[in-house]
Amino acid sequence: MTTELTWLGHGTWLIETAGKRIVLDPFLDENPAAPLQAADVQADYLLVSHGHFDHVADAAAIANRTGATVIANYEITAWLQSKHAVQNVLGMNLGGGVQLPFGHVKMTLAFHSSMLPDGSNGGNPGGFLLTLADGKRVYFACDTAVFEDMRRIGAAGIDLAVLPIGDLFTMGPADSLDAIRLLQPQRVAPAHYNTWPPIAQDVQAWAADVRQTTAAEPVVVPPGGKIVL
């Protein structure tokens, strides 16, 4: 059994595992880095980390078209139900976990903000730790600063960590190195960079720093590129 992760630009990922398609933070139609549009996406589940437009923008459209179940904090799932008529939702909160057909999903801490596009309360921002059916663990930090409890998140062993490196709104390249040293993943992939000029980064320089200063192997793919676990 293999798992494929496709970076769809910015913070959006497609995870294909155990016969299921999971989309993280769907932001496609207004994402200049996206290799496809929301109408092209098939999904069984959507994971939404927080309420900002560039993470929730296409969640309702994809969920309503495909029947996918949206997994997010309670406030976001309630908003999607009441404001966008999304039928299939699973609300949770920080530290909670749930067993699903493709594996276990745990919502982890994130240090960020989470207001929804219309100004509604977006609850607490989070990340996701996935323990897949094949035993592999993937950690999506999503939008966050570095924080010391990343050491605890990584304690069980992480095969791949996906970290933001864009700076300005999230941790930047330097802090991501601290995050890698706390998490100690086998491999690490960057996200949430180069979508717009304010979060532009030299990703090859970042990868060189990861190799030189941490034990993790950096995996850099362009939008549309795949990582196989």
Protein described:
There is one protein chain. The chain is of the alpha/beta class and 229 residues long. It has a single domain, classed as Metallo-beta-lactamase, Chain A (4-Layer Sandwich), CATH 3.60.15. The chain has six helices and 14 strands. It has helices at 53-56, 59-66, 74-84, 150-153, 173-183, 203-213, and strands at residues 4-7, 13-17, 20-24, 45-47, 69-73, 89-92, 97-100, 103-109, 126-132, 137-140, 160-164, 187-191, 217-218, 226-228. A seven-stranded mixed β-sheet has the order 6-5-4-3-2-1-14, covered by helices on one side. α4 links the parallel β10 and β11. α5 runs parallel beside α6 (203-213). The termini are close together. The mean pLDDT is 98.
- Strand content is 25-35%
Query: What spatial order of strands do you see in the largest sheet?
Result: 6-5-4-3-2-1-14
The share of residues in helices is 10-25%
Number of helices: 6
Strand pairing plus helix content: what structural class?
A: alpha/beta
CATH class: Alpha Beta
The number of distinct structural domains comes to 1
Assign an overall shape.
globular
CATH architectural category? 4-Layer Sandwich
Tell me about the biggest sheet? 7 strands, mixed
N-to-C SSE string, H for helix and E for strand: EEEEHHEHEEEEEHEHEHEE
Q: Could you please say which CATH topology applies here? A: Metallo-beta-lactamase, Chain A
Total strand segments: 14
Rg result = 16 Å
